[in-house]
Amino acid sequence: MSDETRNRELESRESEQRETPWKPAPMLPSPDPRDGLEFRYVRAGYRGEVDNINVSQALRDGWEPVRSEDYPELQITSDRNSQYPDNVLIGNLLLCSRPAELGDKIRKHGDREAQEQMDAVDRNYFREQDPSMPLLKPQRTSRITFGDD
Fold first, then answer.
1. Residue 124: predicted pLDDT
2. Cα–Cα distance for residue pair 108/102, rounded to 1 Å
3. Do the bridges between strand 64-65 and strand 93-99 make them parallel or antiparallel, or are there none, so unpaired?
4. What are all long-range contacts of 109-112, with beta carbons under 8 Å and residues at least 24 apart?
5. Contact 96, 42 (CB under 8 A)
6. Is 67 helix (H, G, I), strand (E, B) or coil?
7. Which of the listed residues 21, 65, 72, 113 has the most CB atoms within 10 Å of its CB?
8. What is each CA distance from 141 to 4, 92, 121, in whole angstroms?
9. How distant, in Å, are the alpha carbons of 82, 129, 131, 139 from that of 125?
């Protein structure tokens, strides 16, 4: 029985592993995840024209351009005449980061605004309700059924 155990220990899974297929590199590489940060590419130009308005809006929203030396895994070389020589710029798209907690606050604000708009639509709809013919509360869910269910 000890011989069986020893033979089993000598076996290797390396010979049984499948070969991983080759995949082309993505056009926009993603940086390795970092705690407390979220990433996004911001348009810095369009058809040869600089888009300072879009970059300025992103900066006001808390996005900051990342430095290429801080993300060596991206393997980026900057263009000679780039407006952002020290940052990650790929085809007029500038990689930016911001704190995840700020992103959560912005998303919560957007969700709250959307909910307030839906409440306003409901108030306007139910304002014209007549007691003799009550309006039904709108159904905002989807159901998928198959066959005769």
1. 86
2. 10
3. antiparallel
4. none
5. yes
6. strand
7. 65
8. 60, 40, 17
9. 53, 8, 14, 13
Average pLDDT on 67-76 reads: 86
CA-angle at 120, arms to 117 and 121, nearest 5°: 90
The number of beta carbons lying within 10 Å of the beta carbon of residue 15 is 6
Q: Where are the alpha helices (DSSP H) in the chain?
A: 2-10, 52-60, 100-127
Q: Rounded to an integer, what is the distance from CA 104 to the centroid of its chain?
A: 13
Q: What tokens were used for 17? A: 């592993």
User: Per the structure block, which two tokens stand in for 44?
Assistant: 């810095």
Residue 55 one-letter amino acid: V
Joined together, the tokens standing for residue 124 give 């306007």
Question: What DSSP line would sit under 6-45, residue for residue?
Answer: HHHHH--SGGGSPPPPP-PPPSSPPPPP-TTEEEEEEE-E
One-letter amino acid at 24 equals P
Both tokens of 113, joined, read 């605004």
* Residues forming beta bridges with residue 41, ordered by sequence position: 95
